[in-house]
User: Which sequence fits this backbone?
């Protein structure tokens, strides 16, 4: 059972106008290193405080180094303050060394969003999370993804077969995500949600670590309380790199976040 | 007929270790403002010179202001130099004011790339560009997109109906792109290609300017000589913002670049 909330492990404490402290939890890790979406969410929290607008609309992160858990810093540098949108630089440092460098466009997400057209979205296949198979925090070969002991990430039964019966070759994982204690998602926590699932490449071929090189997320609406629906897809594996997209719907079926990432594929 | 090459209009001249001059062409504009992918390509050119690796693998740009054509500057700031990949910040300034702020991950694209799996890509529907309908540089209401007098952008006949007979509601434009004088594409010119087509929203409903807020591009392989195939798609229009993705295949059918962007939708 988890003893931490996402609000607590992603909390930033303002130390100066543009500098924040964050304590990276050893529990929100894969193989001992903090999850990349978790790191981006910490930057997003600081940007919402230091920037001229409250909500992240678009965030692009390039991953330079994987920090150890423990105390770290977030720096925010305003670039432009407009009426409807503003832009900031954000970075996460460990012991003064930059680990994640990001750019964020901020604005205000409406309380009641208006969807004008959603014909280009994949089918969320909204079903009941109760039927899902929870992703465990330990794997058979001793690799530990402690984060799955914190979050409740469930694969739908068909996606789960990628792990129990071997890759299906679809390059697609579907399921649900809930934060510890059913803490409601806020927009910033969706920056974590888009990077919370195992690599979709595991449904194509087993591999070692799939480290994110770049992650871009768009936040489209405030999520309703309750678990979110996750669709994580791989598109092209070439030259030991893969691009993956992720779509997040809230409990009401509204698309609340989407992302794309480029990752390396390491052999075990 | 065009009198400039893309190599010429996107050329950067090194003025100092990290500072470059670029002359933004008044011909590579939409409504008088330089195309966003063109601006990112200028940053990519400078990054390939100033950075420790030659090729852009991933580029994320946030658009702060739309510069006038004419002399501008590009600044590159190294962030990390690794063995296989490195990261830099890049920005484009006009009269000392930042217009585009970007992050780039650099590496080396192999001469002969190896595709291991491409099951998540859309069908390129590779056909002959000769049957395409060239996008004109002028529109019936007096709006001028001078850039289409430079590049040879052709819609396939079905996509062209979105303009001649009204939006089809698919949110998708397919076609081909050739640079002036059939100049071969290099990886950096693909940063322009992913933003070269009209907004895919024009196949859903007519609107005014669709200004890019964020553009992320991944370069996956060196393109073969010849025109490239373009698939530009909208996914969700909500709260006057749209996300679009773009896929670029070279003449041999190899996926060479892909992108996602978040854009605003302005009414006329």
Assistant:
């Amino acid at each position: 059972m988890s003893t931490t909330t996402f609000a607590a492990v992603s909390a930033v404490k303002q130390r100066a106008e543009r500098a924040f402290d964050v304590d990276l939890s050893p529990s929100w890790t894969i193989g001992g290193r903090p999850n990349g979406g978790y790191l981006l969410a910490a930057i997003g929290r600081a940007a919402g405080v230091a920037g001229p607008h409250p909500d992240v609309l678009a965030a692009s992160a390039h991953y330079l180094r994987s920090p150890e858990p423990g105390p770290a810093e977030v720096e925010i540098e305003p670039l432009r303050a407009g009426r409807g949108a503003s832009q900031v630089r954000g970075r996460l440092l460990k012991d003064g060394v930059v680990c994640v460098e990001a750019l964020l466009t901020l604005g205000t997400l409406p309380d009641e969003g208006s969807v004008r057209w959603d014909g280009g979205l994949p089918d969320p296949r909204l079903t009941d999370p109760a039927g899902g198979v929870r992703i465990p925090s330990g794997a058979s070969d001793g690799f530990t993804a402690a984060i799955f002991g914190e979050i409740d990430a469930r694969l739908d039964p068909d996606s789960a077969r990628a792990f129990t019966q071997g890759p299906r070759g679809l390059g697609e994982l579907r399921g649900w995500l809930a934060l510890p204690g059913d803490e409601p998602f806020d927009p910033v926590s969706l920056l974590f949600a888009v990077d919370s699932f195992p690599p979709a490449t595991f449904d194509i071929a087993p591999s070692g670590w799939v480290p994110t090189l770049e992650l871009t997320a768009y936040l489209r609406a405030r999520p309703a309380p309750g678990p979110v629906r996750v669709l994580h897809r791989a598109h092209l594996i070439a030259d030991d790199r893969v691009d993956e997209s992720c779509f997040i719907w809230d409990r009401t079926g509204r698309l609340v976040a989407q992302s794309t990432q480029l990752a390396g594929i390491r052999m075990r």
